[in-house]
Amino acid sequence: MQQLILPILLASFWTVCTGTGDWCYQSQFTCEHQCKVPDEWSHVNSNCGGKQQSPINIVTRKTLKDENLTPLQFTNYQQSFKGTIKNNGHSVQVGVSHLSTISGGDLPAVYKALQFHLHWGNNGGPGSEHTIDGEQYPMELHIVHMKQHYTDLTTALADPEGVAVLGFFYEKSNSANRKYEPIISALQSIKATNANTSLLPISMAQLIPSEKNLTSYYRYKGSLTTPGCTESVIWTVFETPIPLSMDQLKAFSDIKFHDGKPMVRTFRPVQPLNGRQVFRSGSAMTLASSALLGAAITMALGLSQHN
Ligand SMILES: *[C@@H]1O[C@H](CO)[C@@H](O)[C@H](O)[C@H]1NC(C)=O
Ligand SMILES: *[C@@H]1O[C@H](CO)[C@@H](O)[C@H](O)[C@H]1NC(C)=O
Ligand SMILES: [Zn+2]
């Protein structure tokens, strides 16, 4: 009798714990809260099982330098606006209503900004979606753009190059980043899912590194990192991270999922490259190459001294 009961018991647990319903991050999954974790997103939308998915791990020594990846042109990124920040149940998102665009850097068109949102870890722990040589940063900013002539994202997503997302990493710093105070202080007002609040005026330029620090980036063809996972995204992932203090990073873990649990570890795991090439801009990996140059000079000097 007992020999029979155990497998039945296990089988019923298995059924209870297999995700049904809405998609979620791995951190949200409990037997009580049934949801589809990233490994099951292909059952939410078959695109999520596609061959050009995001995020990816960028292996820098396998990237190919592309001289066409010149600095991007940012238009109206300096403009201050009074945005609304919203807890949408899986991130915090700010809509961009004024016309601000990116172009150049081998993008096939001019793209206008629609919204930006973030992906983060637990109390400042690993939380970025993209990783560089296996390193996961504490947070990642995505600024979502679509080709300027489209009027809605759905239409843009039907174009294989319709969407351009800029990705920025964050790094822990010893001092608070004052430019982020409007965002950080607003988080306390949007802890509950679907809550929103208005931001003090901010510009997108104040949230990202200065333009001279945006010349090093990676480029590849990928997808949205949440369902429907549409493969219509030209990704630009910048090398220079944005500094935030530990307290500022931790403030994001005060946000709650709809069930009241802390909204943490809101990232999709990295996806297979499936033969895709990742390109790097002319000046990506400048730190590594200048170190090599320095070593070469030192060696040459050392050799000449002995001659
Ligand atoms: C913000 O929340 C209010 C209700 O509190 C709602 O009426 C409004 O549409 C929301 N705005 C956005 C942008 O979600
Ligand atoms: C990039 O930013 C760092 C600080 O994060 C700064 O030390 C460095 O000088 C900047 N590099 C350039 C090329 O401006
Ligand atoms: Zn994102």
Automatic annotation (TrEMBL):
InterPro entries: CA4/CA15, CA_dom, CA_dom_sf, Carbonic_anhydrase_a-class, Carbonic_anhydrase_a-class_CS. Its main location: membrane. It comes from the Eukaryota. It catalyses: hydrogencarbonate + H(+) = CO2 + H2O. GO terms for cellular component: plasma membrane; side of membrane. Its EC number is 4.2.1.1. Pfam families: Carb_anhydrase (PF00194). One of its GO terms (molecular function) is carbonate dehydratase activity. Reversible hydration of carbon dioxide. This is Carbonic anhydrase. The lineage of its organism: Eukaryota, Metazoa, Chordata, Craniata, Vertebrata.
